[in-house]
Amino acid sequence: MKNRIHRLMSTNKKLRAFWRIVIVQLISFVGIHSTLIAQKVKWVSTSENAPWVEQPPLTLQTVLSQNLDSALVLNIKATEQKIKGWGGCFNELGWKALLALDEKDRDEAMKALFDPKEGSRFNICRTPMAASDFALDAYSYDDVPGDYDMKGFSIDRDKKHLIPYIKAALKINPNLKLWASPWSPPAWMKTNNQYDSGSLRMESAILNAYAHYQAKYVLEYKKAGINITQIHPQNEPIMETKYPSCKWDNPETMNNYIKNYLGPTFVKEKIPAQIWLGTITNKDTNWFKHILDDKETMKYVSGLGLQYNSRFVLSFLRRQTNLPMMETETKCYNGKNSWKEADDTYGQMKQYINGGCQAYMYWNMVLDETGLSSWAWSQNSSITIDTKAKKVIYNPQFYVMKHFSRFVSPGAYLLKNENKDSSALSFINPDGSVVVVVENKKQEKPFSIVIGNKTVTATLAASSFNTFIIDK
């Protein structure tokens, strides 16, 4: 009997030891893999025939032994520039197109662009200072020749078209920030006395009057309930066009205007807006260098605004200055609103964001079915309004922008791409969530994201845009 008791006790000790080992291993396994249960990854995809599809959630899981050589490897502590936001440009023809809809459909289109919860969440937008090429016609705020004191200055024209458009957006997103640039000064200030082509008359009285014109614009808009946060002194200053424009013959003219007229005027009159060097369409680094090297001028300059074909000078500008940069206008195209052009836009966004830009601007947010400017140039738009059928059409470029703006919040940081994957851009939001936007140009393929010792893998459809959101 005594021996049987000893044998039983010995067996029980072995059983207890065995189960202790099993329990420890189970606790270890559960501890390592607990995130499998909790951490889901949202995924939205867009292809030409299936735009904005919310795919079933994926799971972020611990990396075991799979080959991840081709994966996008992220280090959430390796950050680049802070992102300020996303947007487009208000224009008179856009509002005219929207007015063709009934109020409900018009509100729906505006919410698609500006709603902070469900829409594209546009938070920083451009507005023209008087006529652009997508105004109803050419005009300025002071068409009285010789009115150097700006006694005839008036924004009444904008109160009929542009301001209602802007206020409709502000109603949806009260935190929307606005910045402005002129296409042309008043015609009487120019060498050819016309809105199109010609140059600003480089006379002290004209330059002084134009500085007061731009300052008064900010103040009058403020009275109308709209805060203009930035002024870019000239849209595309090296261009001469058949629509409103103004060529600045060399960088010295722009440098002189900012240093001796616009900057001092803004300081003296306490204008509540920054001055940015924009919006520049230029590949010549010497043009920028001439202005950036002038310390007196740069006392007044808060940032750089770059149009779609200045992407070739981004690396130079990052070396030359610490000023923030923003992309101020996408490529216009010719009104086809094609999938191929959306693909091209994605490529431009990659270049500008990887090049250091903190914000990205679409051009016309809304146009009618013709896409025509008042000067007979048909261009692309994010949204097309078929004014005959009273129908709202969301173009491919709308979705490209939304894949970024919907999920990448102001205050996010761009993440360094550790393995130089050319198809993806990654961000970390202020709330700690990670956003990856990736394009798959060719055939269907697997795509993996690695963060630390965890990974998520999806199969990307051929010719698609995709956004993955990994919550903190």
Description:
- The protein has 472 residues and is α/β, with parallel strands linked by helices.
- A hairpin with a 4-residue loop joins strand 15 and strand 16 (391-394).
- It has two domains: 39-79 and 416-470, Golgi alpha-mannosidase II (Immunoglobulin-like); 84-407, TIM Barrel (Alpha-Beta Barrel), CATH 3.20.20.80.
- Helices cover 33% and strands 26% of the residues.
Q: In this structure, how is the largest beta sheet organized?
A: 8 strands, parallel
Give the name of the CATH architecture of the largest domain: Alpha-Beta Barrel
Low-confidence stretches: 17-38
Our estimate of the beta-strand percent is 25-35%
* Mean pLDDT level: 92
Which strand order does the major sheet show?
Answer: 6-13-12-11-10-9-8-7
Distance between the termini: 62 Å
Number of strands: 22
Notable traits:
7-stranded antiparallel sheet; 8-stranded parallel sheet; 33% helix; globular; 472 residues; Immunoglobulin-like; TIM Barrel; alpha/beta; 2 domains
Short précis:
The protein is α/β, with parallel strands linked by helices. Helices cover 33% and strands 26% of the residues. Residues 17-38 have low confidence and may be disordered.
How are the SSEs ordered, and which strands pair?
Layout: H1 2-33, H2 35-38, E1 40-47, E2 50-59, E3 61-62, E4 72-74, E5 79-82, E6 85-89, H3 92-98, H4 103-114, E7 124-129, H5 156-160, H6 162-172, E8 177-182, H7 204-223, E9 228-231, H8 251-268, E10 274-280, H9 285-292, H10 295-298, E11 301-307, H11 314-320, E12 325-329, H12 339-354, E13 357-364, E14 366-368, E15 383-386, E16 391-394, H13 396-405, E17 413-415, E18 424-428, E19 434-440, E20 445-451, E21 454-460, E22 464-470
Parallel strand pairs: 4-20, 6-13, 7-8, 8-9, 9-10, 10-11, 11-12, 12-13, 14-15
Antiparallel strand pairs: 1-2, 1-22, 3-21, 5-17, 15-16, 17-18, 18-19, 19-22, 20-21
